[in-house]
Amino acid sequence: MKKDKPNNNLNKDLPIPSYHAMIDHDSKEEFGLKIGIIDADLLSNNSHRFPNLALMKISAYHKYRRSDKVTLLMNYNDIEKYDMVYLSKVFDYTEIPIDIMKYDNLYYGGTGFHYDLMPDLPDFMEHMKPDYILYHSWIGDMMREGAKRKEFEYYLDYSIGFMTRGCFRKCEFCVNKKYDKVQLHSPVKEFLDEDKPYICLLDDNLFGYPKWKDIIEELVTTKKIQSELQLRHKQHWSNKLNTITLKRGNKIKNIIHHTSHYIIDYCNKNKINTLVVGLNKTWKQNCKLNGSATQNFVFIPYDMLIKQLEYKCQDVGVRLIMTEESYTSGTSFLDNETPKKQNYNKSRRVHRGLFKSNNGQLINSDVNGAYQIMKKVFPNAYADGIKGCLTPVIINVVKTTRDIKNGKENFR
To answer: Could you tell me the pTM of the whole model?
Structure first.
């Protein structure tokens, strides 16, 4: 393959990329796209002992959530023939042709470009199980040319991922200096391939996480489960576990669909033309619940709900506004406080689920937080004629949406 002479200043001259265009493209719900994946470190050396985890997650997102056609590209020649091409490199010394950066359909990332300044993957990609078969065609070609299987053990034998991210040391030479602490990232089952005998953690400072013992216990438990299956059935996974996993995934998708459907129907019935949704990009990474609650929370696909609300709002002409949630849980809507740091006092959450205003009036804490999220967008909510209640209503969204389809509308 013919390459342009590399530019030693290319990395620092490139702007720090944003994923906004990627997210906007995703929201169009265009399925069946042609996606190209370029591992620049692999092309530079034609061999690499370790797969690119970010590219495997991106590939999994497009293959399994969007049903796009994903191809691992082994040269830079045909970028213009794909709807989207993702280029990543881990090392700054990896050379890439200068002229490929002109393509509008090219998204680039990785520590090889801007080291500690590169943005993280969007949550809807970051928490995908990696596509461990992305490199299989290349591995097959290499082995047919005489390479040994042992050279690809990290591609073939290891489940790879992060259970924690970050470090508190802030060493100047380290890519993790952008973090202030070690924080929980994902449970092992998020990236576990049950057919692989080993687990490789890429955690930066696992023992810097306060509850590192819980993580070790989770790893030990996972290994025990796999060992029992191996002894009994000579396999790491079972049909029963596969059925349970599939059933759980389908149930979650069904609930998310009914939830978004109910919200949009409610907006239509009550002539609501604007929907405000709070979103913190790192709410899962910074989660501080107990171990099992954290796992359950991290695995709730909030991004799926948001995506469904986006296109359903567009269909019916409802304006969807996304806003961050800072200081909404510890400031008081009833006392007309703005959700700012100087008003923040979380001690007013007297019980789980109950918030007490300065004059003693009680309000459900989630309702108070929701009103404060609304005030982020509409500071004069009551003055603008917006009304609501102080107590939430528990709704069976699956049953309710079925009733609506049968002509039994029952909004409370």
So the answer is: 0.54
